[in-house]
Amino acid sequence: MARHARYDRKTALEKAVGLFWEKGYHGSSMKQIEQALDMRPGSIYATFGSKDGLFFEALAAYAEQGGRELAVHLKGFDSIVDGLQDYLRGIACSCGDGSAAPSRACMIVKTLLESSNTHSALAHQANSILAAIEESIASLVEQAKMKGELVQSVDSRRLARLLQAQIMGLRSMGERNLDPQTIRDLGDDMAAVLDGYRLYH
After folding, report:
1. pTM exceeding the 0.90 threshold for the entire prediction
2. Interval 78-131: pLDDT, tens
3. Contact (CB, 8 A) for 13 and 57
4. Is residue 13 part of a domain?
5. Considering the domain boundaries, does residue 42 fall inside one?
6. C-alpha distances in angstroms, 149 versus 82, 108, 137?
7. Which of 173, 140, 178 is nearest to 159 (CA)?
8. How many domains does the chain divide into?
9. Strand, coil or helix: 150
10. Tell me, what CATH number does 73's domain have?
11. What is the DSSP code string of 154-168?
């Protein structure tokens, strides 16, 4: 039996995410992909069609995992706003703790920056994912308004865009290897922004 039979698609994608997150699309050679996935070229092409196909699926898997993590996180809070604030602080802690993640920066943002002028299809996918994330955050803000947590005058989409920009910026700041407390302070400052929109301060 081929040695690859023990690997399923999910496992291969997890390994691909790790490689692409660290090195990017252009920085990952086929040889590195073969080694990371422990698959021969023929198996990779048979499973994913191409390097592009593998990257597209890896980026989508990364985004879906992030969405699941946020949803699970929010289930631990009665207040959507409290949950979002804690989520922001959690991102700051993960950016400053020297964790074993392939990169502190967001894989989606790294893809957008890397591919904007070199690979329009990848840039389009990254943009589409970011738009979907913005939509999901806007939905959470709208739910918080309906629950009476935020003032009704809040523009849900505008606030969602602000929060997304802050998250993207915070994860990029993590690449600077700043003092962990400095990053945590940034997380606190970002979380405090939401207090300004609360119905009751």
Report:
1. no
2. 999 999 999 999 999 888 776 656 676 789 999 999 998 889 999 999 999 999
3. yes
4. no
5. no
6. 10, 30, 15
7. 140
8. 1
9. strand
10. 1.10.357.10
11. --HHHHHHHHHHHHH
